[in-house]
């Protein structure tokens, strides 16, 4: 079976839905942000603050290429992993790409108390989410084979919804 690759904005549920999905399909779960942090030996947040976004994107590109070349898994990607065209090619080559879609308003409800996500540590995080959505929604759509709207359902329902789409699309056979 090929990898299942989850893309979406911060808070869209890639890590939480991804873990449930991995259990269901019997693949290991990998979070590219965690792999990056292991390589760095520090948090993404600290690295961002110290070295800037471009250095982070270079490392992210390398890690995504390495993971795509590795064994099949359910891969939760960083929210900005679709920004570089090379990464979009890498993700599509790695497996079936699923976009977990959520509105900026829904994401704000989930993340309003969060302090870990560097792109939201700004004066107006709600505007930041709206801007990220406007910039990235077309890129997530471009890379994705499947799009799942995550606005209302619980995490366990979402796992079922993703499974259903994958099954109907023949993605669970290879
Ligand atoms: N469908 C949902 N309904 C309600 N809460 C959700 C849903 N999906 C995720 N959450 C919650 O939103 C928060 C963010 O989810 P999660 O960490 O899985 O997002 P993510 O896409 O991995 O974000 P990041 O890109 O920053 O790693 C968590 O507290 C999670 O429990
Ligand atoms: O949306 C983004 O650009 C990011 C999301 C996180 O998953 C991390 O990959 C990092 O904080 C950057
Ligand atoms: Mg995550």
UniProtKB/TrEMBL annotation:
Binding sites annotated in the UniProt record for Mg(2+): 15
Details of cofactor binding: Binds 1 Mg(2+) ion per subunit.
Location in the cell: Cytoplasm
Quaternary structure and interacting proteins, as annotated: Monomer.
Pathway(s) per entry: Metabolic intermediate biosynthesis; chorismate biosynthesis; chorismate from D-erythrose 4-phosphate and phosphoenolpyruvate: step 5/7
Any single Gene Ontology cellular-component annotation: cytosol
Keyword line: Amino-acid biosynthesis, Aromatic amino acid biosynthesis, ATP-binding, Cytoplasm, Kinase, Magnesium, Metal-binding, Nucleotide-binding, Transferase
GO molecular function annotations of the record: ATP binding; magnesium ion binding; shikimate kinase activity
UniProt-listed InterPro entries: P-loop_NTPase, Shikimate/glucono_kinase, Shikimate_kinase/TSH1, Shikimate_kinase_CS
Function per UniProt: Catalyzes the specific phosphorylation of the 3-hydroxyl group of shikimic acid using ATP as a cosubstrate.
Species of provenance: Ramlibacter algicola
Cofactors that this protein relies on: Mg(2+)
Enzyme nomenclature, EC number: 2.7.1.71
Protein name according to UniProt: Shikimate kinase
Gene Ontology annotations of biological process type: amino acid biosynthetic process; aromatic amino acid family biosynthetic process; chorismate biosynthetic process
Family: Belongs to the shikimate kinase family.
Presence of the UniProt keyword Metal-binding in the record: yes
Reaction(s) this enzyme catalyzes, per UniProt: shikimate + ATP = 3-phosphoshikimate + ADP + H(+)
Enzyme class, spelled out: transferase
Segments crossing the lipid bilayer: none
């Amino acid at each position: 079976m090929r990898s299942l690759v989850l893309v979406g904005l911060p808070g869209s549920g890639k890590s939480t839905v991804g873990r449930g999905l991995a259990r269901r399909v019997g693949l290991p779960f990998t979070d590219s942000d965690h792999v990056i942090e292991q390589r760095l030996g520090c948090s993404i947040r600290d690295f961002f603050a110290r070295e800037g976004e471009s250095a982070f994107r270079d490392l992210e590109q390398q890690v995504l290429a390495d993971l795509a070349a590795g064994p099949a898994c359910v891969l939760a990607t960083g929210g900005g992993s679709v920004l570089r065209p090379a990464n979009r090619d890498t993700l599509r080559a790695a497996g079936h790409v699923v976009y977990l879609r959520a509105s900026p308003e829904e994401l704000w409800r989930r993340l309003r108390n969060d302090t870990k996500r560097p792109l939201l540590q700004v004066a107006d995080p709600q505007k930041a989410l709206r801007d990220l959505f406007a910039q990235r929604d077309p890129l997530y759509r471009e890379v994705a084979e499947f799009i799942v709207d995550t606005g209302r359902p619980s995490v366990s329902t979402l796992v079922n919804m993703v499974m259903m789409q994958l099954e109907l699309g023949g993605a669970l056979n290879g």
